Amino acid sequence: MFSCKNQVAVCAHRGGCVHGMENTMSAFRHAIHLGVDMIETDVRISKDGHLFLMHNLDLADQTDGSGRMQDHTYREIRSMNTAVRAVPADDFDAPSFEPVALLEELLELASEHPDLMLNIEIKDKPSEAGEDLVFACAEKTAAMLARYGLGQRTWINSFTGKVLERVYSMHGDSFHYHGFYPWHIMGSMETNPWDICDVACLLNWTRKDDGSLLKRTTVPCPSEWYSSLLEAGIMPLTISFYKDMQAYDDAISYGSRILMADDPKKMLSYVRGKGLHD
Terminal CA-to-CA distance of the chain, rounded, Å? Predict the structure, then answer.
């Protein structure tokens, strides 16, 4: 079962998004300075096998470059500027230039903060990049985390269940695993997600007759889903996109003890005001 020194853990989604510098080293450092418990980020692999942190498929969404990560080399990607999407934000000074962050840079930073937890999403999907590249990204990510000795405070996270299976087959309980509930969101798996996941993000996504997903934003998901996970020893994680803070109150009352935050400062102030976070 997930545990944290605080009654409710605040997870900085992509390190924080409100300043337009998501998944950058500046965002990660700022979130740690604020006092978050966990950093969530997205790993993609370059054409020449380097691991970068980027949520969107098109580099133009977060940099002054364009195209897909998998079609560019290390040198090309590191020359792109993530600061071009920065927006004014209180107590956050955006640099004029910041390169696309490397996974290794985040792990170096995490090594300096022994209480910090990591939520590492393998963002590449087989439908976009091919299964071989996705598995290569997952295997390299897990190997790097293991090399830094961060496994027991890291949750490997993927919308593709086969990615979790691949890492679990190689590393077993050296890592924690974060799935998506209901489990059909992750597609077909030979491994039972109830057996390997100890954190699950709840999304009210139902599968239609044609196999596609109907994505609802119910606020929050049904309390019975939280109960089912908790009874199995799996901690429900509450996603960051709810606008009404009442949704987070409801989720806490249902037993969720991890809140994802696009604005970590706002969420920390909220839970601290309730006496749930130091």
Answer: 21
Instruction: Report the domain count for the chain.
Output: 1
What DSSP designation does 45 have?
E
2: in domain: no
Cα–Cα distance, 12 to 36 (Å, whole number): 7
> pLDDT, tens digit, for every residue of 258-271?
999 999 999 999 99
Which of these ranges, 27-41, 87-101, 187-201, 264-278, has the smallest mean pLDDT? 87-101
- pLDDT confidence of residue 90: 82
**How does DSSP classify residue 19?**
T
Question: Rounded distance, CA 257 to CA 271, Å?
Answer: 11
**Strand 258-261 and strand 235-238: pairing?**
parallel
Strand partners, 106: none
CA distances for 128 relative to 51, 57, 139, 179, angstroms: 17, 9, 18, 20
pLDDT digits (tens, 9 = 90+) for 24-34: 999 999 999 99
Half-sphere exposure of 168 (CA within 13 A, CB side): 21
Instruction: Count Cβ atoms below 10 Å from residue 166 Cβ, excluding itself.
Output: 21
How far is the CA of 239 from the CAs of 108, 141, 263, in angstroms?
A: 27, 23, 12
Phi-psi region of 266 (alpha: psi -120 to 50; beta: other; left: phi over 0): alpha
- pLDDT tens across 164-174, in order? 999 999 999 99
The CATH number given to whatever domain includes residue 19 is 3.20.20.190
| 154 occurs within a structural domain | yes
What is the amino acid identity at position 266? K
